[in-house]
Amino acid sequence: MFSVLKNLGWFFQREKKRYFIGLILLIVCGIAELAPPKLLGNAIDEIVTGSVTWASLTNYILLIIGVLIFIYFTTYVWMREIFGGSNLVERLLRTRFMNHLLGMTPPFFERSRTGDLMARATNDLRSVSTTVGFGMLTLTDSTSYLSVILIAMGTMISWKLTLAAIIPLPFIALAMKIYGKIIHERYTLAQDAFGDMNDQVLESVAGIRVIRAYVQERHDEQKFADITNDVYKKNLAVAKVDAYFEPTIRLFVGLSYAIGLTYGIYLVFHNELTLGNLVTFNMFLGMMIWPMFAIGELINIMQRGGASLDRVNETLNVPPDVKDPANPIHVESPEAIEFKDLTFRYPTSSINNLEKINLTVKRGQTLGIVGKTGSGKSTLLKQLLNEYPAGTGKLTISDVLIQDISLNQLYSWIGYVPQEQILFSKTVRQNIQFGLKDAPDDIIMEAIKTAAFDQDLGTLSDGLDTLVGEKGVALSGGQKQRVALARAFIADPDILILDDALSAVDARTEARIIDNIRNQRSGKTTLISTHRLSGVEHADWIVVLEKGKMIEQGTHETLLELGGWYREQYERQQVESGLSDGEVS
């Protein structure tokens, strides 16, 4: 049950001063709370015996007020320290969790569900936070505070009455153990269901246009109703066990009261106990109600916190599929990029996705990559991102293996525009500035012109300050592509990778963008994959892929002379382009 505290030992070690102060003051506060009942019992005994005076009564009142003031300020300090630690561990774990996600590569996110990751970053971390705050309070009160009360009852009142009154306590411990095990299992299932619900919501919101286009609103509503019903049932299963805690404790506390009152009256009649001491004892019994409840809350919180921490650690313990080299080799600048017999297979694939790739791209050259859908164009470009475990063969930059280059240095060279553009829920300006932090408007406009987005900018309601919506939903496909291109152009990278990044623009806009790239990227490396061969006619070298293998390579003119796939595709696209121009005219 307390494994969660052991697993959080690093935090308690770091914040030992905070918790030492907080827990010591909590215990001191608990001891101080024993004073008012004892003072009241003494006052009652003086009243019964007739020895009370105004002076003694005034002293009792002032002492009780003084103790209450002391308890007030002490409580403020321990609550600030302990619950402050609760907020601190949540912040530390959330930061660690986010940093871990940022260090993960695509294979991790292919295996993990976004909704489940969100559940772990929110609900689960909040449960861990509660364990470190309220959990530490219940742990202290159910052990130290309860012990202090029991010792006070046994030494200050009557050890015989105390032993009789605590007979029900072992039964509480037994019941809590049984309930705690069930809570841990059911709470884990409930959190998993919450992650599934998050996934469903994310998919529905992201795919709302498709859902409406296929008139699947009612089906999606039913699907969401089913999954929320599952979440409800699993949380209800937790609540049903939760509901046993309080009645069980009340039952045994009530038995303690009954035993204490019955046996206490017997001791008073036999002059083994004064009336004042019986009143004090019953007040102490009343003070024991919270520590007994704390036992139940402790088990509940620890089991929830343990289940949540297990889920969080499950994610944190996943190592990156691609790690930074232990001793990275510094490369001044990316000169030649060379593929030597490179063969690569995705972790989920049963066949080689690239096979025996031999290719050299020198600094300042433009490489065009073409081929059928699924031929391996994107896979070839992604090798430069070093996001997947390396295959066989070699990929070097400036004669250094890409695995030996620091990931930060590698990414600092690259500007990447993928097939599916991701824009953030910010303005056009902020999305473009993501490529160059705090870039002024004149540089932003230059990047926009290079991406041929300048004419579209005037059609947007607020120009550069137009909000693009989540994932750029407020923009068309072509506009999203060109904003993504501008983001890459503004960074002026040494290596620009365009992965079918011009598929949503028309041929004339594509030609304008290609001309801009040729004029502005002199001396820098550019790699372009595309289905439209007009986008790579200008390239220094063109590679044709089929099923991950290079079947043709050369310049545009050389490939036309070969009379293979490239020429066939080029002639077909020329005919289609001619027909399109004829329709327009």
TrEMBL record:
CDD domains recorded: ABC_6TM_TmrB_like
Cross-referenced InterPro entries: AAA+_ATPase, ABC1_TM_dom, ABC1_TM_sf, ABC_transporter-like_ATP-bd, ABC_transporter-like_CS, P-loop_NTPase, Type_1_exporter
PROSITE patterns the UniProt entry points to: ABC_TM1F, ABC_TRANSPORTER_1, ABC_TRANSPORTER_2
UniProtKB keywords: ATP-binding, Cell membrane, Membrane, Nucleotide-binding, Transmembrane, Transmembrane helix, Transport
Pfam families noted in UniProt: ABC_membrane (PF00664), ABC_tran (PF00005)
GO cellular component: plasma membrane
Primary location group: membrane
Subcellular location: Cell membrane
GO MF: ABC-type oligopeptide transporter activity; ATP binding; ATP hydrolysis activity
Topological type in the membrane: Multi-pass membrane protein
Lineage: Bacteria, Bacillati, Bacillota, Bacilli, Bacillales
Boundaries of every ABC transporter domain copy: 337-572
Signal peptide segment: none
Protein name: ATP-binding cassette domain-containing protein
Organism per entry: Paenibacillus anaericanus
Transmembrane spans: 20-40, 60-79, 249-269, 281-301
Database matches in SUPFAM superfamilies: ABC transporter transmembrane region (SSF90123), P-loop containing nucleoside triphosphate hydrolases (SSF52540)
Domain ABC transmembrane type-1: 20-304
